[in-house]
Amino acid sequence: MDKKNLSVPSHAQARIAGDKHPKRRSSSGVSGVTHDNTHHTTRFTVIGNHLAQHPELSLLAIGLSVHIQSLPAGARVDIKTLVARFPEGSDRIAAALRELEAHGYLRRPRERTPTGRIVTRTVSCNQPGRHAGQHTDRRTEPDRPTDHAPEPTRPAHPTTPGPPKKRTPRKPLPAVPQPAYTGPGLLQAATDLLTGLRHHHPDLLLSACDTTHLAPGVAAWLERDASPTAVRHALTHDLPPEGTRRPAALLAHRLTTQLPPPAPFGGPSPGLETIHVQHPLRNCDGCDRGFRGPEPGRCRDCRAAVPTAA
Question: Which of 81, 125, 234, 270 has CB 3.0 to 4.6 Å from 135, enough for a Cys bridge?
Answer without folding.
Answer: 125
